[in-house]
Amino acid sequence: MSVAMRLALGSILVATLVLILKYYAYLATGSIAFFSDALETMVNLVASSAVLAAIWLSQKPADHNHPYGHHKAEYLSAVLEGVLIVLAAIAIFKEAYDALLNPIPMTMPASGLMLNAGAGVINGLWAMVLIRKGRKLKSPALVGDGKHLLADVLTTVGVLAGVALAYLTGISELDPIVAIIVALHILYTGWELIRSSVSGLMDEAIPDEELHMIRQIISLHADGAIEAHDLRTRHAGKLTFLDFHLVVPGTMSVHNAHDICDRIEHALKDHNPGMAVTIHVEPESKAEHQGIIVL
Q1: pLDDT in tens for each of the 295 residues of the chain?
Q2: Residue ranges of domains in the chain, CATH in brackets
Q3: In the sheet where 292-293 sits, what is the strand order?
Q4: Strands 227-236 and 292-293: what pairing?
Q5: Start and end of every Cation efflux protein transmembrane domain (predicted)?
Q6: Contacts (Cβ under 8 Å, ≥6 apart) of 217
Q7: Which one, of 92, 90, 107, 102, lies nearest residue 163 by Cα?
Q8: Model-level pTM?
């Protein structure tokens, strides 16, 4: 089992434990804010299961119907997680509205606060693991899951403060108000996750800093060529796709031109092992006198 698969499985186990803690916190207090926090964790559990399935699918090798691989499956998982987050926010709005109309006094808040706080600590630690490992593995599904958990931690902190304030002041309406604030935060998190995932599905180019580094590598390792132009990039999961035109002297042999391409490709893959490079060789007459000048 790959590292990414083990992390995804770990997320399911963590989400199950945190859900149990948060649900018992809700039972102990009757707090709608705690209920909203538990509902978000239920979404985490469903989403973590989707992440596991997406990572398994994304790791399948390329085949006849998918010659570029299955890497975009992780973006579909992240989009699904975003949609589930939005649905959870809508459910919380409904519960909070009902609680505002019919406030319910909270009971035994101390045990509920401790349970919810413990769940928040577990989520926070696991979120940092997922984000760090997800970036290292270039897994948008793991990073998305980690960011969602981190948002969940911030939610838990706000919920704890709100519930404590509602109990100390005796103002029951504060509890559903906190739940509404939680729902708004969850709604924003879901929208951001959907937006970032759709950019991957739409073949968005890599960041400018990474593109600048790639241009430098091409320039430094294309000795013998004249220029490179029409450089295009896109990312799909852990893979980065790069293609460009390389202009060489018209009298250069195919063998020598191929050697230059190999040298550039090896340098690029040393920089980023998950890069698929396509180079189109052109004669000097096709030079545009712009783009990447060979040093």
Answers
A1: 678 788 888 888 998 999 999 988 888 888 878 887 887 788 778 777 777 777 777 667 766 776 666 566 666 666 777 777 777 778 778 777 877 787 766 665 678 888 889 999 998 999 999 889 888 887 776 787 788 788 778 778 878 887 888 777 878 777 788 778 877 877 887 777 777 666 666 667 778 888 899 999 999 999 999 999 989 988 766 678 899 999 999 899 999 999 999 999 999 999 888 788 999 999 988 877 777 767 5
A2: 3-201 (1.20.1510.10), 208-293 (3.30.70.1350)
A3: 275-283, 239-248, 227-236, 292-293
A4: antiparallel
A5: 11-202
A6: 264, 267, 268, 271
A7: 107
A8: 0.58
Residue matched to tokens 């009902």: 98
Tell me the sheet residues that pair with 283: 248
Provide the 10 A C-beta neighbour count for residue 213: 15
290: alpha, beta or left, given left = phi > 0 and alpha = psi -120 to 50? beta
Report which secondary-structure segment, H or E, holds 273: none
User: What token pair was written down for 62?
Assistant: 């390329």
Token duo for residue 67: 């010659």
Please tell me the distance from the alpha carbon of residue 213 to that of residue 217, in angstroms, as a whole number.
6
Cα distance between residue 285 and residue 281, in whole Å = 12
Length of the chain: 295
Whose CA is closest to 280, among 225, 235, 238, 205? 225
Q: Check if the beta carbon of residue 89 is closer than 8 Å to that of residue 186.
A: yes
Cα gap 40→231, rounded to integer Å: 42
Give the contacts of 33 (CB within 8 A, at least 6 positions apart): 159, 162, 163, 166, 175, 176, 178, 179, 182
Residues ≥6 apart with Cβ < 8 Å to 9: 1, 52
- Alpha-carbon span 62 to 240, nearest angstrom: 15
